[in-house]
Structure formats: structure tokens, C-alpha cells
Design goal:
Layout: H1 7-10, E1 15-21, H2 28-38, H3 48-58, H4 64-67, H5 71-76, H6 81-97, E2 100-107, H7 119-139, E3 145-153, H8 159-168, E4 174-180, H9 192-200, E5 205-209, H10 215-224, E6 229-232, E7 240-242, E8 248-250, H11 252-259, E9 264-266, H12 268-273, H13 285-290, E10 295-297, H14 309-320, H15 324-336, H16 342-361
Parallel strand pairs: 1-2, 2-3, 3-4, 4-5, 5-6, 6-9, 9-10
Antiparallel strand pairs: 7-8
Helix pairs in contact: 6-7, 8-9, 15-16
Length: 362
């Protein structure tokens, strides 16, 4: 590649996003307006610039637990159907503006019932926001498909209930299930009932694993829970050794992960901020990509991590010298791993991603 890819050029590329939290991607101005509209009085700042700066810096702590603290404020303003619809609608708008053509957005319905909404009403409001956002984006010439994952909090005891919610809404925009939250002390096997329910209903799920905790979390997610994908999975690198001559040797867990093509929903910027990686340049993404693991690029939390899909790709390009063919491969990896039916995945790959990359390369 003779000319490095710039952020501006990367913004024109089609993108597929598998790991993005709805409550981690609000616009700061929206947080302020919703707080004023619905009487949320606990914001750390009431001026837009100050609040924006708070979100940009508060989570950059080197700890997953501290990284999660600012979510109290975004969740705090998302307790009505109107607020949930607006946040979902703006999420689609922002992703479409970044040329994301497919996205799976996840959120935890159990965190949005303090205002009196039922779990079903919460999901209804979010899905309506996605539909309206898709329609508006198409009207501007930026077609995007957005689907939803419902998340259960791993420290709580509602995962079976949330899995049942996923199945109730499976034909209305919910394509899967997830567990999230602090990993240490909350292994995925605590939620076996929920995962068995999903498998029993021929449904798909991903598990946050190998982000703030090590190989045991990944092993449980794969061997006992049967995860279709891994959220982050950064610590799988601990099961890979590299000899002095550069030869990589995979342990049994890393081997089965690669052999089964289990997708890794990697979020480089977030991983640095939570301490899962020391820097983008030291992130295991490149090692895993070169070893042909199914790596995908994701934002995790666009507000909290102050990022976008284009910025994530640009940071990887700067660190590892990737070109268009690499970014296309990561994008197709994500699209292959999406939880929508195979014909829909194939149509987006063949009719959208490949043709638009062909134009960029040409």
C-alpha cells in the first residue's frame, strides 16, 4: 500500500458492526436534553462542553469496573418510551452517517424499567426507534439494517427472563441474546439456564468473555455455555505462544476457537481504556488476524470511548499498516458472523460490501 488510508477515506467504506451498546452511544446534547425533560438531576455537568469532556475522560481508567461507572447517567435518562425511541433513532442516524450498513445494537432492558415501563414496552420502544431510524437513513441515501440483541446483566438474576424476552421478539427485530457487566466473580456458567433456553429455541447468543478476566471465562463461554460469538475475547492471546523464530503455537482453547471459526467481537479503543490491552499497537488484534482467527472490528461504546467505526479502523490502520483488502476482510468477517439469516448476510456482502470496496480500491 503506497498511500496510508486516512480517516476521511475510511469513512467512505461500508462497515458492519456487531458489538455496540445502545446506552454507551448517546449524543451528549441528547443526555442534557433528556435529563432536563425528564427530571434527571444527577448529571456530573450541566453544560454541553463540560459533559462531553466528562464522558471522554471518566471511563479511561484502566479498569472495566470504573469504565462502566458513567453508564449510570446514560441509563438514568433512558427510562421512558420517548427517550428510548429517541436514543435508538439517533443511534441509527449516527451509524448511517459513518457508512455502517449493518449493525447489531445491544442493550439491557432490565436497566430501563425504573420509570414504570415493562420489559416488553422497553424493547418495543427501542425497536420502533430503530425502524424509524432505518427509514430516515434510507431517505438520505444511506441504507442501513439494524437489529437488536437483548442483554442480561451477569451480576443479576434475570438472565432466563431476558432470554425469554429475546424469543418473544425474535421476529420483530431481536436477533440474539447476550450477558454483560463485570466479569470477575460472575462466570457465564451462572446463566446456563438462559443459554440452554436459547439453544432449545434454536436461537443465537454471544457472551462477554475474555475482556477483564482470562482464559477460564472464555473456556466456560465456549465449552459449557455454547456461545456463538465472544464479546471481546482479548485474553485468548494468553493461550498462544510465539517462538523466537516467530512460529506461533496455539493451545487447545485457542485452537478450538479458531477451528470452529468463533467470531471475536473486538473493540480496540475500549480494550485499551479498560486495561485489557496496553495500547492499540500492543492490542492482540493483529496477531489474531494474522493467525486467521475470525476477528471483527467494533466500537463497544461510541460515547464512552469517544469513537466510531471509522476511527476504530483508522487506529488499526495506523498501528498495523492495514490496507483496503484487510478492512474488507474484517468487514466480511463481521457480516458472516451476524445473527440474521444466511441469505440476508450474503446479500449485504455481495450487493453492498464487495461492490463498494471494489470502487474504493479502484
Amino acid at each position: 500500500m503506497s498511500t496510508p488510508l486516512s480517516l476521511d477515506r475510511i469513512q467512505h467504506a461500508p462497515k458492519a458492526l456487531l458489538h455496540d451498546h445502545l446506552d454507551g452511544g448517546l449524543r451528549p446534547a441528547t443526555v442534557l436534553e433528556l435529563a432536563d425533560q425528564f427530571g434527571y438531576d444527577d448529571l456530573p455537568a450541566t453544560e454541553l462542553d463540560a459533559l462531553t469532556e466528562f464522558f471522554r475522560t471518566a471511563a479511561h481508567s484502566g479498569s472495566l469496573e470504573r469504565y462502566l461507572e458513567p453508564f449510570a447517567h446514560t441509563v438514568g435518562v433512558m427510562q421512558t418510551a420517548e427517550a428510548l425511541h429517541r436514543v435508538a433513532y439517533e443511534c441509527v442516524e449516527d451509524l448511517a452517517a459513518d457508512n455502517v450498513v449493518y449493525a447489531e445494537i445491544r442493550f439491557a432492558p432490565e436497566l430501563h424499567i425504573d420509570g414504570g415501563l415493562s420489559l416488553d414496552e422497553v424493547v418495543d420502544a427501542v425497536l420502533a426507534g430503530f425502524v424509524d431510524g432505518e427509514r430516515a437513513a434510507a431517505g438520505t441515501g444511506r441504507a442501513i439494517t439494524v437489529r437488536c440483541l437483548v442483554t442480561a446483566m451477569r451480576h443479576a438474576a434475570r438472565s432466563r427472563e431476558i432470554a425469554e424476552l429475546a424469543i418473544r421478539f425474535r421476529d420483530r427485530g431481536v436477533v440474539g441474546f447476550d450477558i454483560a457487566g463485570a466479569e470477575a466473580g460472575y462466570p457465564p456458567t451462572r446463566h446456563l439456564d438462559a443459554f440452554e433456553y436459547m439453544r432449545g429455541n434454536n436461537a443465537r447468543f454471544t457472551i462477554h468473555a475474555g475482556e477483564a478476566f482470562g482464559l477460564p471465562s472464555i473456556h466456560e463461554a465456549i465449552a459449557f455455555c455454547g456461545a456463538d460469538r465472544l464479546g471481546h475475547g482479548v485474553r485468548i492471546v494468553d493461550d498462544i505462544t510465539v517462538d523466537e523464530d516467530g512460529t506461533a503455537k496455539l493451545g487447545r482453547l485457542a485452537s478450538i476457537l479458531r477451528d470452529k471459526r468463533i467470531p471475536l467481537e473486538m473493540c480496540p479503543t475500549s480494550n485499551v481504556q479498560t486495561g485489557a490491552a496496553a495500547s492499540i499497537a500492543e492490542h492482540p488484534f493483529d496477531k489474531l488476524a494474522r493467525l486467521r482467527f475470525r476477528v471483527t472490528v467494533n466500537t463497544d461504546n461510541r460515547l464512552i470511548s469517544d469513537t466510531s467505526m471509522s476511527q476504530e479502523m483508522a487506529r488499526l490502520v495506523e498501528a498495523f499498516g492495514y490496507g483496503w483488502s484487510d478492512l474488507e476482510r474484517f468487514t466480511i468477517n463481521a457480516m458472516k458472523s451476524a445473527f440474521i439469516p444466511f441469505p440476508e448476510r450474503l446479500a449485504i456482502i455481495d450487493d453492498v460490501i464487495k461492490p463498494r470496496y471494489a470502487v474504493l480500491v479502484g
